[in-house]
Amino acid sequence: GTFGLIRQKTKNSKQTVVCCVEHVLETDCRHVCKSFTGDSTANTVYEIESNAGNTVTLTKFIVYSTSHDFCESLLEQESKRILSSALKLGYDILKQEHTDILEDFWKRSDILIIGDHLLQQGIRFNLFHLLQSAGTDGRTSLAAKGLTGEGYEGHYFWDTEVFAMPFFVYTNPEISRKLLEYRYSILDKARHEARLLSHQKGVKFPWRTIAGEECSAYFPAGTAQYHINADIAYMVNKYVEATGDYDFLAKYGAEILFETARFWTDLGAYIENKGNKFCINCVTGPDEYTAIVDNNCYTNLMARENLYNAVKAVRWMKTNLPEEYARLAHRLNLEENEVIEWKRAADNMYIPYDEETHIYPQDDSFLDKPVWDFTNTPAENYPLLLHYHPLVIYRHQVCKQADLVLALFLLGDLFSEEEKKENYDFYEPLTTHDSSLSTCIFSIMASEIGYRQKAFDYFMETARMDLDDYKGNTKNGVHIANMGGTWMCIVNGFAGMRTYDGTLSFRPSLPDQWQGYEFNLSFRGRLIKVTVNRYATAYQLIEGDDICIMHNNEKIMLKRAVPEVMKNIG
Which residues are catalytic? Predict the structure, then answer.
């Protein structure tokens, strides 16, 4: 017959996977169909007597289902039912459904670059991979290598939230909601992880995972990256701010914020030597060339943001959903004095800062180390981690990737323009960009402080990283975080998009090498088209109610179908 079915079981997790297939052959030619099975194969062979000019069409309908989807005893029955409904719909309708989804995606997500067709190809290639790779069922996330290779064994990292999720939040927010629901789905495993680390309350999200367990084998550069808790909480807050989806906050987001806040107050302590400030010791920040340090500045800043947002969420729920809050607080055994403690810790958070130089030290010990000898390090010795023992790297001033510079971007409203420039200038020569997460952040910040050529050069290192295999390792899979970073380089970098206190603002510029660029943004139920050329930026409200936005610190009220054209600066 034309039907085939394979049932398999994974070795470690014992998940069952069923793949079933039906073939539909359309031809007027004489043909014979034979089916046979091998050890782990189901084969259908067609022998067709055909002459030149005859049309032969074979349509293959395939259904995959797993024991995640249905209970094991019903897997084959349910797979056949889905296959039967697909056959009834037919190829044309299924293709049209697929086309409609992609057309809507490109309408909301496409970036048009005028003046460089290779970059145009690069950005679209990246956006497609982001869509293809993102879990949309609330039980799966987005792997560091997407769906394209076995690098990192398919694990999820903070790459998803900080580097890929902004693209979804501001173009396809329903996908970002599902990615955050995945984090909610592993909360119990994250609670267990916190208990393993001797914390009686709160959650510790795993550094790398699929099912929720910590899969990192090297704790100094893995588990010790506690900032992942704050990264996830940050995106919960940014998602709600960008969408107004308070249903998500009530059902999922608040619990994530509360449980991560609890962890920080248990992890940190008030240290007399630091003026009784709240310190977070023995952590690893985003820079994996500096491990197990006290008061990583990025971690402390993001933890403070996490704590404040948890307090804000408590107040919001008490005001708007008091019964739901009471139920949640009861289920979590959340006491009022804990919320007071969150605010106290945030108010007293120790932030490393050097008054003389205006530098935010990456951590307490960073400035006490010798600078890495970059002059005598041969080019073939990068990435450093592949050529030097971690202990050698850890005792030098050298950064694998953006760390404090990432805080300058994510929490940009906390720093003055002067501080951003001074800290960028300090950390840039110390950074090797041995991680693909790095150059996009340096490009965005270079745009903000007016280093236009640097912004463009760093962007060029991101845009075609996989198409041109810059790092020589695309064989292990694409660099998904970098692909999200490419989108951010244009939207947050060149166009200067920020959302502080719920206000959408822009400071657009155009790279000298382009004639213009164009993108759409989703924000609070609106779809806004932004078009930038050499001299001006046009904003057009495509969907939704009137909205006030900022262009170069000037307020604009956008109304439907009335484009607002504003002059660019410089």
Answer: 288
